[in-house]
Amino acid sequence: MSLHVVLGCGPAGAATARLLAEQGHAVRVVTRSGRSPEPGIEHVALDATDSERLIGAARDATAIHSCAAPPYHRWTSGWPPLASSLCAAAEETGAVLVMLGNLYGYGPVDGPLTEQLPLAATGPKGRVRAAVWEQARELHEQGRIKAVEVRASDFFGPGVTDGGHLAARVVPRLLRGKPVSTLGDPDAPHSWSYVPDVARALVEVAGEERAWGRPWHVPTAPALSTREMVDRLAAEAGTGPVAVRGLPSAVLGVASVFSPLLRELREVRYQFDRPFVVDSSAYEAEFAVRATSLDEQIKATVDWWRERSATTG
Predict the structure, then answer these.
(1) pTM score over 0.90
(2) Are 35 and 29 contacting, i.e. CB atoms less than 8 angstroms apart?
(3) Can you tell me the distance from the alpha carbon of 265 to that of 246, in angstroms, rounded to the nearest whole number?
(4) CB neighbours of 9 closer than 8 A, spacing ≥ 6?
(5) Contact between residue 147 and residue 136 where contact means Cβ atoms under 8 Å apart
């Protein structure tokens, strides 16, 4: 049994912590506010940008799983101090730094996304996410830390709520047979990262030294458009086909005046206006984790939302 420290308790952080606990590891979850203990999981309240306190929390850890992020609208100011603190903790403790990344750093590309693509984003969010990995990679190559990044597309599955494009704004409505509105072209192929698969990949690479020093894409099911995903969710729910409407650019522009989230999403609108397809074959050629079958993903997601609706009214 070894100690694993997980930063953040959002969908990916919570799933990672529970998976590690199920495997018999000691787990310490670090969040700004802290939480009540869970079986096999200790919760600690601290500001992860405070490197001294983070080092103390990660002392004797085998791995630090970075699943936290600053508030979306403060990424450019919030990521640099958090990344520096994470690297300092990894260097001081010797724990491998397992970073949960995303695909923003690539910027718009033609064709499937692979790990060999340059981090060529020009927008502020894409550049800061690229810089976070570049900092860790450079320290890894200098032999000062051990680091690996696991990159995911848009989260999907149980536990994903306000932050998901196929979550709180979509699933409750389709469960009632009502039409849904989505960002961008609802017929553009899109890759969705199933949160349990994200957690399994983070846990797997933590123990695979040959994975360290480079990024990997989470094993991901074949891309389906938003409309196709909604159709499958509605079929599983038994609510029949529901209408799917893409938000026109003009409507998005007006809505973004009142919605900070929509305003911030303008930088990555391209991900939904054109095909956005993840190639995870490099990971699958090296390691054991595979994407959960789409049927299982859909069923688990509908069941989770139904249970949530029943308990919250």
Answers:
(1) yes
(2) yes
(3) 15
(4) 17, 29, 31, 35, 43
(5) yes
